Amino acid sequence: MTMLNAFETMNTTQQNQFRDTANKLLANTFLCRDKKDNKESYYFLMSYKEVFDEFFAVLGYEIILDSATGSVMLDGATPSNTLKLKRDESIILLILRLLYHEKAKDTSLNDNIVCAISDIHTKYDYLQIKRKLNKTDLVSAIRLLRRYNLIEVTGDVTSSACRIVILPTILMAIKSEDVNEVYTAIMRITQEDGDRE
Question: pTM of the entire structure?
Fold first, then answer.
């Protein structure tokens, strides 16, 4: 059955859900089963995976699925559809990946990986990055990563006590299994920054 035929056999509610899920993936790149506002889309995509695969293949995208973590990524790595992160956004994303790795060791498979804004500052200071992390850049980066379903935020993002749930989709955003590679990436970014200064 072709994608169009499959779509036409869906009822109106399912067709609307298909559109919503496709648009959510196009807008946010990632879906996480454990995120409340992603759950319905995640399970719908799982039910109609072949139809979504065919639909996105036409557009030049591929759906990558990790059912163990309940993560979905829409991959279409061409320059026109790749988000370019600023220096601090890249460093914060990498730091969150490190925190995910560290905290996953002490957490059961069913528990969320949670950190505080203060953990990001502590890790940033530990890495001895010359330029200090300012609050505006941190808040902006947190909001961006939340938009892409890499984290969830509870509390006021401007407060150091704010809680961040690091979603397993971060493993797809930073594919490296070797944590040393993540440290190396941070050092490379900060070294390039130092060379420019």
Answer: 0.86
